[in-house]
Amino acid sequence: MDSYEQGRGRLLTSARPLPDFEVVGSQGPWLHCAGDTWIFDGSSGLLCANVGQSSRKVRARVEQQFFQYSFGGAAVVRPHVQMELVNRLCHVVGRPDDSVALTTCGTLGVEVAVGLARNITRVRNGKQRGDILTSTLSYHGNSALTLALAGNHARRPRPEDAFGLGPAFPAPYPPTHAHETRDCDASCADEIATAIDNRGAENVAAVLIEPVNGSTGGAFVPPDGYLQRVSEICRQRDVLVLHDEVLTGMYRTGTPLASQHWEGCEPDMVILSKGLGAGYTSVGAVLVSPRIAPWLRHEDADPLPAMGTIATHPLMAAACLGVLDELETIHVTTFTARGERLGAALKDLRGVGPVTDVRGLGFLYGVEVAPGQLWPVMKAAEERGVLFYPFTGAGEPRSEGLVVAPPLISTDDDIGFLIAAVSDALASAG
Q: Whole-angstrom Cα distance, residue 188 to residue 37?
């Protein structure tokens, strides 16, 4: 066993049953591997490298900040760069008047959002408990608390380690909420009303949902009217709505926020992370609507959360500004057309080889395959020059498939290459 393999065994992280790559360079959505081969990043790394790699705009921002100062606590050094990030971010996602809490990552963003929601409902509504309700097909982070709250079957802690927490209502998708005579529709949101009423609205601070499912179920899209109905149910009960857009935010689904595909479902808080740091830095941001943010400064409110030592420090904020610079160069009409082309081509693969379903929108799709076919398909795709991220999610037998989510800066030629490679890989696996 060579020294790399010996050292790899000491790295305590999940692994996959395929060889990893020796990467020696990168350019945009492409990875340059040892042996002078190139592989296309078909899932934007871990669903985060939205603007590709080796961005000159990100580098320019980081270098500029590096030679000014690299660290300064926001409570000590005037946080000019963080404030610039907050202002630009809120305008980019169409929530210009929001207040923002900056954190180190998406997981902590969810935890901060939970704390803020509890604080607000305690002061505003006099709630003594602050339950957070989630769905049976959800993932909200990698901490002990967020894993216990959510419905990712593969990663949930053992029952005795889950603090008595767990998902409270079925997601409106077939693996967890099948109907004998119809598909899921907006009325599936009534399960949330039942869950709140069973707990007692006075005990529930918020409902936390992914407006479009991420990598747990594989890019499930909610029925039309569902998110609007969720908002109505929660408003009627003085319960906040929190949208986890860690994966779907920053144009991943074709709009700045995934919820913007539908009217009438603007949440009280939005959690962002992956697409904002774009793989260049770890970051999290919790956007709080102006309707509820003033309660956080009420005389009876708990102290605001500290940003943490490394939470979006100046270099991290500068990298995020570089990501926003890159996003501003994307021509929306061209980008939208590429997403539609990708989606149409993938949906044409239903029934090809092991493919059982394709769903998604924008630059986020799940290609579900028959049980036992995931890794053969992944291997076939890599042999054809495309790397994908797997999903293993729900139902019995457990669903599995590819998350197809290329970088947003992919060209027409890139998309064509991806479509050809995945089509050939799936046909060969069949």
A: 48
Strands 284-288, 269-272: parallel, antiparallel or unpaired by DSSP? antiparallel
> What's the full length of the chain, in residues?
430
Residue 27 CA, distance from chain mean position? 23
Residues 99-119 pLDDT 10s:
999 999 999 999 999 999 999
Phi, psi of 146 (to 5 degrees): -70, -35
Q: Under a CB-based contact definition with an 8 Å cutoff, are residues 414 and 237 in contact? A: no
Cβ contacts of residue 412 below 8 Å, gap of 6+? 338
Say if CB 400 and CB 20 are below 8 A apart: no
Instruction: Give dist(CA 335, CA 89) in Å, integer.
Output: 20
In sign, the C-alpha dihedral spanning 117, 122, 127, 128 is positive
Dist. CA 50–CA 409, nearest whole Å: 7
- pLDDT tier, 1 (very low <50, low <70, confident <90, very high otherwise): low
Q: Please calculate the CA angle 29-93-150 and round it to the nearest 5 degrees.
A: 80
pTM for the structure as a whole:
0.96
3-state helix, strand, coil in the chain (%, to 5): 40, 15, 45
**What ranges do the domains of the chain cover?**
3-54+331-429, 59-328
CATH of 59-328 given 3.40.640.10, 3.50.50.60, 3.20.20.70, 3.90.198.10: 3.40.640.10
For 331-383, what is each residue's pLDDT tens digit?
999 999 999 999 999 999 999 999 999 999 999 999 999 999 999 999 999 99
- Which CATH number is 3-54+331-429 given? 3.90.1150.10
